[in-house]
Specification:
Number of helices: 10
Radius of gyration: 24 Å
CATH class of the largest domain: Alpha Beta
CATH topology of the largest domain: TIM Barrel
Number of domains: 2
CATH architecture of the largest domain: Alpha-Beta Barrel
Oligomer: single chain
Strand content: 15-25%
Order of helices and strands: HEHEHEHEEHEHEHHEEEEEEEEHH
Largest sheet: 6 strands, antiparallel
Number of strands: 15
Helix content: 25-40%
Distance between the termini: 22 Å
Strand order of the largest sheet: 12-13-14-11-8-15
């Protein structure tokens, strides 16, 4: 996801400068970009890869997730051909039902991989499916995931099979279950949206966190629209009174979802300007009636201190990631320290 749209390499470099000692990516290509940028710390592939991607992942010294012995055998074979001993992490399914070996089979797989001289089992992990929820049923499910995975780790420890790195916490899990997911046998967390300023769930200490990304677009046109006049494709909006409309140079082609037309808006010259008529490919119309001094060339804040991405997303019925990632992905980036 290119660091949730924030820029993979600059974010990785900032994290390393702040003391991060391991990184995670979704694809082999992302791992390759980090290696090409001179980053040498361990990099875990968080998602499954295709068999044909194994040789490249091995050559890049990426830690590869494993959930079955057949795939592990392919990794070991690639390692022998390259004369290296690949690092793997065992992905366990404790309830997400997306990737991973089922928990009742995980111990056997760890034992098998640990006996393979061509592999290094450096970690084991699982993913929480509902950590952001405070619903009692969701909390019970999350605690069940934590308890079952913890029991697995203790069983592996008794048998001398416990991998060096053990982790379960995503951002929401870290916030809501901090003690349970950061104390022994856990020794690693996988923080995602939290480091970009979006906690997903509130806690007393998260109030000080601020989003790191601002997204703006210029006003490229201004229109005076009379009462009763239609706006946009299919005349979707009809002015109920005299309105002043600004057109900004951003649309769904640059990552603003069409559903933002229902409740979304931007911040211009100290005021909130709601979207009118729809979000189009490259442009969006907003109502600046009553906002004094708006001119062509003004910057409209789409994401920023006045409109954080999580608040914008909530207004239009999306999770923050569903809005944030595509919105930033299409933007020209400038980085500040």
């Amino acid at each position: 996801s290119d660091a949730y749209g924030h820029g993979l390499v600059p974010v990785a470099q900032a994290g390393l400068a702040a003391g991060v000692d391991r990184l995670g990516v979704v694809t082999v290509e992302e791992g390759s970009r980090l290696r090409a940028a001179g980053i040498v710390v361990p990099i875990l592939l968080l998602g499954p890869i295709l068999p044909e991607e194994i040789p490249r992942a091995v050559s890049l010294e990426l830690e590869i997730p494993v959930s079955d012995s057949g795939f592990a055998a392919r990794i070991a074979a690639a390692g022998r051909r390259s004369r290296v001993r690949p690092a793997v992490q065992v992905k366990v399914d404790t309830g997400m039902r997306r990737f991973g070996v089922r928990i009742e089979r995980a111990e056997g797989l760890v034992e098998e991989l640990s006996c393979n001289p061509d592999l290094r089992v450096v970690g084991i992990y699982t993913h929480l499916s509902s950590a952001e929820s405070r619903d009692p049923a969701a909390r019970a499910y999350t605690l069940g995931q934590i308890e079952s995975f913890t029991a697995l780790l203790h069983s592996l420890e008794r048998r001398g099979l416990l991998p060096p790195f053990r982790h379960i916490a995503n951002s929401a899990g870290f916030i809501q279950y901090q003690e349970a997911v950061t104390t022994y046998p856990f020794n690693m967390v996988r923080i995602g949206t939290l480091i970009y300023g979006y906690p997903e769930v509130e806690a007393p200490w998260t109030a000080a966190i601020r989003p790191v990304a601002h997204l703006t677009a210029p006003v490229v046109a201004l229109r005076e629209v009379g009462s009763g006049s239609p706006l946009g494709y299919s005349r979707r909006y009809r002015a109920s009174s005299q309105r002043r409309v600004a057109v900004i140079a951003a649309g769904y082609g640059t990552g603003i979802p069409p559903c933002a037309a229902d409740g979304g808006g931007v911040w211009i010259r100290g005021g909130f300007a709601p979207i009118l008529g729809g979000v189009y490919l490259d442009h969006t119309m907003v109502d600046v009636t009553g906002i004094a001094g708006v001119e062509i060339g003004d910057e409209a804040e789409i994401i920023g201190p006045h409109i954080p991405a999580d608040r914008f997303a909530a207004r239009i019925g999306l999770h923050v990631c569903e809005f944030l990632v595509p919105a930033l992905a299409g933007a020209e980036r400038r980085f500040y320290r």
